[in-house]
């Protein structure tokens, strides 16, 4: 289960305004549920009946989705639900009856209210000492439900004490950080302070300070800003739970059905998913990287929607009145009345700001520069291109200190996007444009960075493979009947046939795994990364539910079913399901100890194999993997950065396995101090290494140039140092309260590259030396297919 109805933290709610959804029609959600159930039975890879066993899984999934920590329901509640619905939810759903979903949700809502009443009373009356030797279980998804209210109260006393402990530790960290910043500021001011005598010496005719004071005294003093009293730890904890309840109470029948049908879908496998209309819209935007709206990034701050980004060249940017950090208090369609948006869920505000191309939306705004004022801003909606997640590239020129100079092309690809309706957006076309420029610059090798790439269009994965191998099979698939099919790339010649590394991690999934597996099987590229990729070896298709509903029924809010229809396999015959793609060279990663990947999901389909396809290796001679691994091991053992990762991974694994935290402020402060001391030691050691390296390099460090789809055809390359965040994201962003991070963070590392990136450069050098391979670049001048 990847979604949860209780996500109420402001930071997790930032989203792009999309396209307005009209008032919800009276869709019969009982009928929607019935058709989703029939679709699952007939369309899913397993072709499994919606029987009593699936009914029991549905119930358990639904309870876990609502109460994932097992703290709101008691065992008595759960036993009651099971006795009524364990073997009957299938009958209810197939009879178009969704009342059990509503009933369970209403009881859940009531239990949350009871717990919040308990929280309010406890925070007011109970004295927490924070000196206990007791421990609290951190991850409770597998914990038993409290057997009764008395046991539940005991669990909640520990939960609240832990909540308050975290707030107190946060206050201490904030105070220490403020003190540190004040000291740094005072130090800088002292260094800038001019000589006193020089400061006192005034040019003739210049006013003396006394005169300045007199002028100032004549002016009325500005009233000091009223300083709001900060919330106490208890008030902040209470406010969080109140927001949780508000979020739960805002969910309507459509939301509840969404939770329920998502729980049913997940009973078949982790990647089968019911998608509401809003979720479908967001999915399409992720695939197309464009939308119709005003072009603004919203986030919730103090229960009000705040403008946190404005898309450059979008409708809001062109209109010019909407500014960063403005707060939206009302939304109106055209000349209609305003709808109050304070305390409203962010997604519902986004729904109201969505709209058709050319339509008008009015925003009632409290300007950031004058929060007491109110301003009405009218914006005509239009198409907005989202550039942040589009493919981009870098050209890295290595310093002479590392050996003979190399030019490395580095392509960053965060998803396999495509416009499946009009074909105007294509990952492959974008990568080909970037690659052509890199080849024109005569790169010695290419890195395709698929870290964090969760997949996307299967068609794009196949086409992209064709940039690197000549025509041949790319992936196989098997349906529920056992019928095996395969897909081929159709390019007669590879666009780029030079040395290549594919960089993956545990979150590289689906289409990423297809591409990486094919290039590994063809012996076309060296795969480098975490111990394995995600392990998603299944194929989904999206089926509109309304297509299966009666002709005259209201279908406007029926949603879609993303359903698993096939398993895919490597051309060598093995599946990537559960196992993922194991790299040729493994780099230490903290992700290897985290509970992520297909194996950690509920109800994954099993691993299996099918016969291999016939295909020709690109390189007959095997890669010198043993020597590459020996060289890598030597560097890893002597590289403090990777030793830090191994040390932190070991500590994290111990904490995960322990799954408890002590309810003692002194012990928590001790742990925090130890962690801080360890990290400060690492930072100090890193700073010393960087300083020594910089003195040795002088100006001869890495030269990096940044390529985007906007500047890829420019005559001159853009140095990384001149590349702004706005150019990278295509969006004007509000500054963070504690200052921007990014390039300054990377400057803390040797050569200004994070450890995995730097080591990948070293691996490329080894790869070139041991294979004596050099790229061909003639194809860079060829016309790029559009």
UniProtKB/TrEMBL annotation:
Per UniProt, the keywords (alphabetical) are:
Coiled coil, Hydrolase, Protease, Serine protease, Signal
Looking at the record's lineage, which domain of life comes first? Bacteria
Q: Does the keyword Nuclease apply?
A: no
Coiled coil keyword on record: yes
Task: Cite the InterPro entries for this sequence.
Answer: ClpP/crotonase-like_dom_sf, PDZ_sf, Peptidase_S41A, Tail-specific_protease, Tail_Prtase_C, TSP_N
Q: Where is the composition biased (Basic and acidic residues)?
A: 173-213, 225-234
| Descriptive protein name | Tail specific protease domain-containing protein
